[in-house]
Amino acid sequence: MSHSRVDVAERIDNEACPLTEVLERVAGKWSIGILVAAAQGPVRFTELERAIAGISRRMLTLNLRRLERDGLLVRTVYPTVPPKVEYSLTPMARELHTSLSGLVGWAERHRADITTARAAYDASAVDAGTAS
Amino acid sequence: MSHSRVDVAERIDNEACPLTEVLERVAGKWSIGILVAAAQGPVRFTELERAIAGISRRMLTLNLRRLERDGLLVRTVYPTVPPKVEYSLTPMARELHTSLSGLVGWAERHRADITTARAAYDASAVDAGTAS
DNA sequence: CAGGATCCATGTTGATACTG
DNA sequence: CAGTATCAACATGGATCCTG
């Protein structure tokens, strides 16, 4: 039945546009890290800040807001002093965990391969340039 | 045993940095679309261009080069006239298919939820601003 | 057909400083 | 602690024109 190549191509054509927008949030540079880090349970702002390494306060805040806005994170403020804010995944976001871990696992497994591939690609590009 | 929260946080801290770089390529705005479209078999440039909808020639080329450089795509040039170029996934990239489909499936299932969540979030934000 | 090259508008990120 | 505000640097993306 209709699982020809045209079929899939059309599916992407028709739905990837809004889908792209959705995927961008989920699969953006920092989102995966945040989502994975928050998967263990409620996480505090500072915990995330340290867990995600290269992220700036600004970017963390922005991403948290976006994820909250899209219904992936719940932000809980405890009106104590000093302030305490916890972020946790919504059920919808929890459904992502498998795919996200899959992605992270893949990245871990193939990090070296990718580095190698890059070096090889760059080397042959240089060769082509040097071939005069 | 050691799957405490500190454990996971450290794992992310130590490895997410280069990992982030890897994930960016895979999870970038267009990469998923390209990878999914190419999963069906060799795809030509123009096929991709039409399949991915909003993408420009420039962005498609750039992304194809990056994916090729990272060893996720193989570019095959047929020296015919007019030229014919096909892109196909490497075995490494094929391993991603499950996770990627999972992501796409999730996005499809929850697109409406996300739209709703956004509207709700924005509405309450407006309320707060209007509450003078 | 499948790009490469260039210019320019825009968005994204980081650094820094300040706050309830 | 958990942000917000502002500015400057940089990357991203689109439009346009050109080519083997």
From TrEMBL, chains A, B:
Domain of life: Bacteria
GO MF annotations in UniProt: DNA binding
Protein name, entry field: HxlR family transcriptional regulator
PROSITE patterns, per database record: HTH_HXLR (PS51118)
Keyword list, A-Z: DNA-binding, Transcription, Transcription regulation
Pfam families in the record: HxlR (PF01638)
Residue ranges constituting the HTH hxlR-type domain according to the UniProt record: 17-115
Listed transmembrane segments: none
InterPro entries: HTH_HxlR, WH-like_DNA-bd_sf, WH_DNA-bd_sf
Lineage: Bacteria, Bacillati, Actinomycetota, Actinomycetes, Kitasatosporales
UniProt organism field: Streptomyces laurentii
